[in-house]
Design a protein that fits this description.
Blueprint: E1 2-12, E2 15-26, E3 29-34, H1 41-48, E4 56-61, E5 64-66, H2 71-76, E6 79-82, H3 94-99, H4 113-127, H5 142-155, E7 160-164, H6 172-187, E8 191-196, H7 199-205, E9 208-213, E10 216-221, H8 228-236, E11 254-264, E12 270-280, E13 284-288, H9 295-302, E14 310-315, E15 318-319, H10 325-331, E16 333-336, H11 340-344, H12 351-355, E17 366-367, E18 370-371, H13 373-386, H14 403-415, E19 421-425, H15 433-448, E20 452-456, H16 460-466, E21 469-474, E22 477-483, H17 489-496, H18 501-504
Parallel strand pairs: 3-8, 3-9, 6-7, 7-8, 13-20, 13-21, 16-19, 19-20
Antiparallel strand pairs: 1-2, 1-4, 4-5, 9-10, 11-12, 11-14, 14-15, 17-18, 21-22
Helix pairs in contact: 14-15
The structure holds adenosine-5'-diphosphate and magnesium ion (MG).
């Protein structure tokens, strides 16, 4: 069975998320759909899975136009999507989740859980999707939860399976297992769509690659012959350089000294557990870990945005455990927050205003109660040029910038003053490959000028290419430490899954 998307256009107000997209999805094939953040990948697949209606264009199933009025119609037509954020009920078992909404019923219409378990077992065996039907969702790792989502889709007889950025939440080992599953589904004759922004992943698993840029299909690639450079150029629309060049590390004095740190999350549960770490001048310390292992709370505690339950934070020899975020900022702690939309910029402020968002009171920009706007504008213009923020005017609203340029704005703001320590959380999330290399270069420059850098990232590639020292966070604890020059994907990946060195041996 083949599916053809023909001339699909979808607008959200003024944004054209998909523009005249043509795409064919074939049985027995893995189609890699590659594109930067915001390219329109999720929108396109939401249309195919019946969640959105296209403004123009049609979906043909084996040449016959299909009309989907909701996800139910698409599922009945055999199209299932595994979403970026899983939609499982945490307190239910695997079997209960799989049959939710389409329960096999026994006599008197009661849920026949025995039958459900049997069906789960059958599907797992058929496609090599190992799971325990009786396990409770919240007690199993994310990689296994993902298998449950896949079984759920297969249970509804899907022959087209769409995976939206499925590897984002996985450790490297889980990614390898996931690829094996996708291949076995392909070999069983299913049609697969694998969405990602990671070049090496599509090259590894896809049979065919389509590249989406700014809502349009801009090219196709053959995974056997396409290079990262080719694919990146299609994705971004210009040439991209990859290597991060780095001199050997020369660590200086300890700038940040954290001991016995314990922090609660929103649900009052322990998110950071007895963490101790140090960052020295002139070194980059990377914290690796799968999303949701306490990194967010750790960063918030270090930067003064979240109270500690216990512990001590010392910065430049001063005890700042109780100090405000502003005090830390004034002492020379810079922070690139993980969620720039929420805490990095104010969208309806212009670029110049955003550039001084956390330093307008600084003597560089203010004389007593008055802001010296001319100085603000001059500094902004200089930063915009130096950090390559693509904009037509510094008076343009920040939310008119693309994600990558918003991020460059934040990086420019944080790095353009005299700082001692940079805490960078997911510094390149949602940033195109071109801007990633640029931001990395500026971070390495800061390190070379003696700034201490703490990078928290769920992208292991980023941690490996930047860090002089790597700490791995798992369930709120630092569970391993590696030398940045010697660490391998495999070792760090195992630690990210909570596997200790002894267990791995
Ligand atoms: N529900 C929505 N409402 C408004 N704009 C949206 C919506 N969904 C997506 N967009 C916009 O459409 C564009 C494409 O988004 P998306 O399909 O999520 O991209 P991708 O999945 O490739 O990152 C983006 O500019 C995004 O902001
Ligand atoms: Mg998406």
């Amino acid at each position: 069975m083949d599916i053809e998307l023909r001339g699909i256009t979808k607008r959200f107000g003024e944004v054209v998320a998909n523009s005249n997209v043509n795409l064919t999805i074939r049985a027995g094939e893995i189609l890699g759909l590659l594109g930067e953040n915001g390219a329109g990948k999720t929108t396109l697949m939401n249309i195919l899975s019946g969640l959105y209606r296209a403004d123009e264009g049609e979906i043909l199933i084996d040449g016959t136009p299909a009309r989907f009025d909701g996800a139910g119609d698409a599922i009945r037509a055999g199209i299932g999507m595994v979403h970026q954020h899983f939609m499982l009920v945490p307190v239910f078992t695997v079997a209960e989740n799989v049959v939710l909404g389409v329960e096999p019923t026994g006599r008197f219409d009661r849920l026949d859980i025995e039958k459900a378990r049997e069906q789960v077992r059958q599907i797992s065996a058929e496609y090599g999707l190992e799971v325990d039907p009786d396990a409770i969702i919240e007690e199993i790792p994310v990689g296994i939860q993902q298998r449950v989502e896949i079984i759920k889709v297969l249970f509804r007889s899907a022959y087209v399976l769409i995976f939206d950025e499925p590897t984002a939440v996985l450790t490297p080992q889980e990614v390898t297992e996931f690829f094996a599953i996708v291949r076995s589904l392909r070999d069983a004759g299913k049609a697969l769509v694998f969405i990602t922004h990671k070049l090496h992943e599509v090259r590894e698993v896809a049979d065919r690659i389509s590249v989406l840029r700014a809502g349009q299909i801009v090219g196709e690639g053959d995974p056997k012959t396409a290079t990262d450079a080719d694919l990146a150029e299609m994705m971004v629309g210009r040439q991209v350089r990859f290597e991060v060049e780095k001199e050997p590390v020369q660590p200086g004095d300890v700038l940040l000294d954290v001991s016995d740190l314990n922090v609660l999350d929103e649900r009052e549960e322990m998110a950071v557990n007895d963490v101790a770490l140090q960052v020295r001048a002139g070194e980059i310390v990377g914290i690796a870990g799968v999303q949701g292992n306490g990194q967010t709370e750790l960063v918030e505690a270090l930067t003064g945005l979240r109270p500690l339950l216990r512990g001590r934070v010392s910065f430049l020899g001063e005890d700042v455990t109780q100090a405000s975020a502003r005090r830390r900022h004034q002492l020379g702690m810079a922070h690139i927050p993980e969620d720039r939309q929420r805490s990095g910029i104010i969208g309806e402020f212009n670029i110049a205003e955003n550039m001084v968002l956390n330093s307008y009171y600084d003597e560089r920009f203010s004389s007593g109660p008055t802001l010296r706007w001319l100085d603000v504008y001059q500094q902004t213009a200089a930063n915009v040029a130096a950090f390559d923020v693509r904009t037509s005017s510094i008076f343009d609203h920040a939310d008119h910038l693309s994600g990558g340029n918003q991020q460059k704005l934040v990086v420019a703001r944080e790095l353009s003053r005299d700082i001692k320590l940079l805490v960078a959380s997911q510094p390149t999330r949602g940033v195109d490959v071109g801007s990633i290399e640029y931001i990395h270069k500026r971070i390495v420059e800061a390190r070379d000028s003696g700034v201490g850098v703490l990078i928290i990232s769920t992208e292991l590639d980023e941690i490996l290419s930047l860090s002089d020292r790597i700490l791995v966070m798992f369930r709120g604890r630092i569970v391993a430490e590696f030398d940045g020059d010697k660490a391998t994907v495999n070792e760090v990946g195992l630690a990210m899954a909570g596997v200790t060195a002894e267990q791995a041996a």
